[in-house]
Amino acid sequence: MRLTNVAADARPQVRTLLIAAALTIALWFIPFAEVLTYPFRLFVTFIHEGGHVLAALLTFSHVQSLSVSMDGSGLVYASPSSWVSLLLFSSAGYVGAAAFGALLLILIRRAVAARWVLMGSAAFIFILTVVFGLLKPTWNGSELSKVPFTVIAGAAISLALVAVARYASARVATFFVSFLAVQCILNALLDLKTVFFLSTPLAHNIHTDAKNMSDATYIPQMFWVIAWIGLSVLILSVALRAYSNNCKRKENQQDLPFEEPLGV
């Protein structure tokens, strides 16, 4: 992305986004850096599984449990109420994570205070943890062995987000939100790449969202993976366009903490 093609008031924000993206990619190649990125991986897993939960609730389906494992994987047990419900439920994980990252970018671009974005994200993960990670599986007797780690991870992530919102400076909080957005988008695309290879004929009945769709529709897994990749890229393209275009401000809207003065 050339900054000369970006709206003047968006350039500081785009630089911040590029720094967050560069840092994320750099950490992929640093030995043992996964220790540093592990909490962010769990954050993305909660968002991914939260997408499944929201899709199930919006289609009036019953959600039995949500669990997150130590290896960073996650699982939602639900009973889709219809074929349409199954379609939305299975698609909402990867696409939902990409959409959440895009939403974070747009909120920051629209000068929504980073602390409120972080508080909202913390509340979302906390509700998922308590309702679907603890109460639901306890009541249904589903995935009980995974409840402790799910609850500990969800509570820790929620508290960490609240701490950053409460104690970090506006500049640091804004960068943190940008970093979370990049994590959601890039991890969603990386996970889809993995599912793409798991959907080839060489893979042997590995359980994925794409396999669920294939079993229900008799349409090859590869079709669904490619469709999800295309939709995720489209969401990212729309978000980046909105992020880099001119943004009309309300009269009472404050400048972002890292914005350059006019004329720079």
Overall spatial form: globular
Number of helices: 9
CA-based gyration radius: 19 Å
Beta-strand content: under 5%
Oligomer type: single chain
Based on secondary structure, the structural category is mainly alpha
How many domains comprise the coordinates? 1
The SSE string, one letter per element, is HHEEHHHHHHH
How are the elements arranged and paired?
Layout (H helix, E strand, L loop, with lengths): L10 H18 L5 H25 L3 E7 L5 E6 L3 H9 L2 H16 L4 H27 L6 H21 L2 H29 L10 H9 L3 H24 L20
Antiparallel strand pairs: 1-2
Structure description:
The chain is mostly helical and 264 residues long. The chain has one domain (11-244). The chain has helices at residues 11-28, 34-58, 83-91, 94-109, 114-140, 147-167, 170-198, 209-217, 221-244; strands at 62-68, 74-79. A two-stranded antiparallel sheet has the order 1-2. Strand 1 (62-68) and strand 2 (74-79) form a beta hairpin. It is globular, with a radius of gyration of 19 Å. The relative contact order is 0.16. Mean pLDDT is 82; it is low at 249-264.
